[in-house]
Each structure stands twice: as structure tokens, then as C-alpha cells.
Design brief:
about 170 residues; alpha/beta; Diaminopimelate Epimerase, Chain A, domain 1; 4-stranded mixed sheet; TPM_dom
Length: about 170
């Protein structure tokens, strides 16, 4: 049991999320996602969680495992072409995870997503939260445009608004 991790989760609150991801920033993220989805048939979701509850912490739930749960809860897997992508931020762990559905993951691969997570983490570590989020959305969009270009007839299958989990 990692006491430092538990302490970080107990002391990181939704107030931290609201301070970093202000309504203006969240609106900008939503607008960026909506604009990107006019260029491809994929779906991008952005979710931020302040911390985990005590039970998952005691079970040593990893940020990746939590991201997969959120991916499922938000139905990101439920797109016609299996090309949904979740960008998940867990503030207490300073963790960013990208979970991509099988359609886009098969074309892009694990290394790309891992490298992208490292880049956004570096940006966040410098306090550049909005810039890091925008760069990540842009990089995800680039891959969706490359592999799933907009065919002109697609519909928006999932909401573009960022989700504050918790």
C-alpha cells in the first residue's frame, strides 16, 4: 500500500480540477473537439478526475485501469467504426492515459499513444494545461484524419463536452 499515493488522492479535490480546468478552458476543449470531428469520423472524449475513492486506492487500481473503466462508462467504445478515443487525466497521480477503441488502435498502435501521453504530461508538469490538452486533441485528430477521414455523411455519435468524473 502506497501511503504517499493515498495521501495525494485524499488531498486532491474537485476544487483542484476547477482551478486548472476552468469553465473557459473546458469550453475551449469542447470547441476544439467539435471542430476536429468535422474532419474525421472518429469520436474524442476528454475526461478529468481529481482523485480516486479509497476502495479503488486500497485495491491499487492503476490510472490505466481507471481510464478503461471511464472509457466504458462513457461508451467511447460504442461507435460505428470503433474509432473512439478517450483522453483521461487523473490529477492526484499526475497521470494521463489515452484509451483508443480497436478500430483506431489497430492502425496507430500502443507506442504512439504512450508517447503522446508523455508529451502531455510534460506540458502539464510545466503548468501548461490548456496547451497540453489542445496539443493532445490535435495529435489524436491527426491520426483520426489519417485513418478515418470525414466522409461527409457521419454524425456526431458522442458528446464533445469534457467530463469531470467524480
Amino acid at each position: 500500500m502506497n501511503m504517499k499515493r493515498i495521501w495525494n488522492h485524499l488531498t486532491t479535490t474537485e476544487r483542484h480540477v476547477r482551478k486548472i480546468f476552468t469553465p473557459t478552458r473546458l469550453e475551449h476543449i469542447a470547441h476544439t473537439i467539435k471542430a476536429s470531428e468535422t474532419q474525421h469520423s472518429g469520436e474524442i472524449r476528454f475526461a478529468v478526475e481529481s482523485s480516486l475513492e479509497l476502495q479503488p486506492l486500497l485495491q491499487n487500481l492503476s490510472p490505466r485501469q481507471r481510464a478503461v473503466e471511464v472509457f466504458s462508462d462513457l461508451h467511447v467504445w460504442d461507435t460505428e467504426l470503433n474509432n473512439g478515443v478517450l483522453i483521461y487525466v487523473l490529477l492526484a497521480d499526475h497521470a494521463i492515459e489515452i484509451v483508443a477503441d480497436r478500430g483506431i488502435h489497430a492502425k496507430v498502435g500502443t507506442t504512439y499513444w504512450e508517447d503522446l501521453c508523455k508529451a502531455i504530461q510534460a506540458s502539464f508538469a510545466q503548468g501548461h494545461f490548456e496547451e497540453g490538452a489542445m496539443n493532445c486533441i490535435s495529435a489524436v485528430s491527426d491520426k483520426l484524419i489519417e485513418h478515418f477521414p470525414h466522409d461527409g455523411g457521419g454524425k456526431n455519435e458522442l458528446p464533445d463536452t469534457p467530463v469531470l468524473v467524480g
